[in-house]
Amino acid sequence: MNFSFSREQQDFRRDVRAFIAENLPSEVRERLRAGHAPLPAQTIAWHRKLNEQGWAAPHWPREYGGLDLGMAERLILAEELYRAPAPMPLVFNVSMLGPVLLRFGTPEQKAHFLPRLANLDLWFCQGFSEPGAGSDLTSLRTAARREGDHYVVDGQKIWTTMAHVADWMFCLVRTADAPRKQDGISFLLIDMKAPGVTVRPIISIDGAHHLNEVFFDSVRVPVENRVGAENEGWACARYLLGNERTGIAGVPWCRERLDRTLELAATLVQHGQPLLANPLLRAEIATLRAEMRALEVSNWRFIVGDPDGDDGARASVLKLQGSALQQRIAALMQRLSGGAALQAWPDADNAPSDQAQWAAGIAPRYFYSRAASIYGGANEIQRDIVARICLG
Amino acid sequence: MSGMQFNYTSEQSQLAQSLRRMLSDHHGFRQRQALLREPVDRPDPLWRHFTDMGVTALAVPEVDAGLGGKTEDLFVVLRELGRALVVGHYVSSCVIAPAALLLAASTSQRAPLLAGIAAGELRIALALTDANGDVRPAAQRNPGCTAYMTQGQWTLSGQHSGIAHLPGADWLLIRAGVEGDAREGEALFLVDTRAAGTEVRGHTLVDGSRAGDVRLQGAPAARLGEGAGVPCAAVVSALDRLGAAAACAEALGVMELAYELTREYVNTRQQFGRTLATNQAVRHCIADMRVSLESATSMAMLAAIVIDNPQASVDPNQDIASAKMLIGRLGRQLCEDAIQLHGGVGMTDEFAVGHCLRRMLVLDHSFGNADVQLGRLADSLSMAGTDARVA
Description:
Distance between the termini of chain B: 46 Å
Structural class of chain B: alpha+beta
Order of helices and strands of chain A: HHHHHHEEEEEEEEHHEEHHHH
Helix content of chain A: 40-55%
Oligomer: heterodimer
Number of helices of chain A: 12
């Protein structure tokens, strides 16, 4: 047993770190350090910069813009990006749709879409959930009726992150009413500019606009934009959701935020005393650090160190632990930041005072972290999965 | 309350029901959201109803044109305000300010102010905390406020931040160091916020309530009590305890709202062909929420009881700190669980349940959050009176 990195992996980490230090704009770094998400233009610019190195989608084959890198290098890259902190490549493009196209796409679909995904020429959003289909995703009702060489799509998706910015959507639709609901689902790629597509913003409890509802009113989608066979879209979705779970634990995010928490605790004062002088706070941070270390090692053990040892529960284990840790860290940052963090969203009427700017991203991040145990398979579903595997 | 009594009296029940009905008619969730988008200096539409119902006069003694209610009566009101997610200035104007005037002001000073409070005519903000009592970067040390006596008139200069309900307030009741007063050190002062020398910068908190920072430059002020009466530190401690008890009562109402919204949601929402409530994990979570509610109810009531009757407790300070700490933690946990059980809709601004958590954070922060209270409780533990031995 060992937990060390090869010479090549250490060199890779060093190269990535140096590249980020030289190329990440300081305003982007500061924005993320303060706890805000990058602006869409910043995400695009940085994603393309990474793509120039082949690092936007490093695990893809070289012919489609990747470097054929393995899981270890992917994880090293993620760790270094979060450490900076720097924006990650757009997950919808490189971790979700890209792998689905690699596995299920036609040569034409791969040739057309993969380079555009890798370079964020097209920003994709994810059309899965519906008002009546959350955890019970297979009960989705957005329908795609075949008419010659097109599908005609009618229905609605919800919780669509960044749909208001996206160029395209990968979308689960119902193409048949089958005895088993998953046997009537297809996977379509839909142009968000197509006539009949309407996006309605949903403001979330962090005060920001990330989420949307998307309505489809007789939207025509060419049949060649279907991925995989008709009525076999659920296999694409399962494959995608399996991939999503691995990254979604947010382990490297936890490390950077916990480091930032410690920094805050050391530099913030109350009644003239540094917060870190409080033994109760030190105990809480020490506990979180130990738990984060366990999660970090598990991440490496599951993904790289013992990749064949999975009985199927590991992705859910990581999601359960990772989401809990994200939430506890976000909550601790909010709790120790006092009144400054409670000043609300930076819009024209409600801007925090200058003295409170350092805390502006902290409460929004805490509120948004409540979703970590809901999206990507809610905690209750994850526990059912683990229990079924453990108990039968 | 004498003996063992944790139920409402019939008057208290009537008050609670009337308030709940009024708030349901005039401060439903949609109305509340619209109200929060109004400019801060628009008159608060609820205020007329509060005055008509007498709740603005509750904390004012009968001799001062009030109703002479006790903290247990304020508990009834605050619980309903919490349940309706009201974020106006009732606590500072009609609960803490009257108590401050009764503790520290002279009779002639307080009479007109108490009458104005009882009549619902005054908005009063309070800056009682140490100017450096809230968390800040080390470089942002706040010099606080100092009072100077010049030709028979007190003036205040300095600054204070994070003052709840400051925007739109008529009066600011603020703690300041007294220049040249070696004996007293600090005192409480009343500042007319509309007079010269007062600059207010307002902001909105995550729950929609207003707060602000103040800069005073030679602002004319009235010293409460003119040196007579209870020392400033004791007054501030008493008001801190009252504020903590008030926050506990409101937080209980917020928890009750979050719980009831969730109960209804899980009994209605269907996935996999059945309601969420048929799932054991959901049922157990609701049960845990109920357990938390009972603890919160007991402690919020206790806090109100020991303010009115400190003799009812061996250690009233510990009871209040324990109540504030537990309700801060349990309230946060319950409101987080409420969002979890709502799934995606719990994350939206359009549903009330997410606003319960936002409100809970501000209530936790006010008058010392759960972590501050825990520090006090831990510090107060000692080996005295135990059999523990140090080897």
